[in-house]
Amino acid sequence: MTPFKPMNDAEIEATVQAELPWLLERRQAGERAAAEDTVSGRLRRAVKAMRQPYEQVCQATGIPFQQLADFMAGGQLASDSLDRLAAAAK
Of 64, 36, 52, 41, which Cα lies nearest the Cα of 88? Predict the structure, then answer.
């Protein structure tokens, strides 16, 4: 196993610059998905209105973090997960 080596400022800056376009696109995709006039769009808006960290929403609903994050960015969720998310967003 390789020992942990902290990143220096230049390495951190390079990592942020490499990930920033993807993060911005994901945020924009989430905004577009939340603006949809669909049940999923309304549910995304309700989750945002909860103003809770995704970790807390995941804990309350049993939905894995990555699945919730993908849904909020425009992906799909299984119907049982949608039901649990809707119940938590009331």
Answer: 52
**Amino acid at position 68, single letter:** L
Question: CA of 19: how far to CAs of 16, 28, 84, 86, in Å?
Answer: 5, 14, 31, 31
CA 76 to chain CA centroid, nearest Å: 12
Within its chain, how far is the Cα of 59 from the centroid? Answer: 14
Tens digits of per-residue pLDDT, 21-75? 999 999 999 999 999 999 999 999 999 999 999 999 999 999 999 999 999 999 9
Residues 6+ apart with CB under 8 A from 55: 65
88 DSSP 8-state letter: H
User: Residue 21 class from Cβ within 10 Å (0-12 exposed, 13-18 middle, 19+ buried)?
Assistant: exposed
What CA–CA distance (Å, rounded) separates 3 from 17?
25
What's CA 64's distance to the chain center, in Å?
11
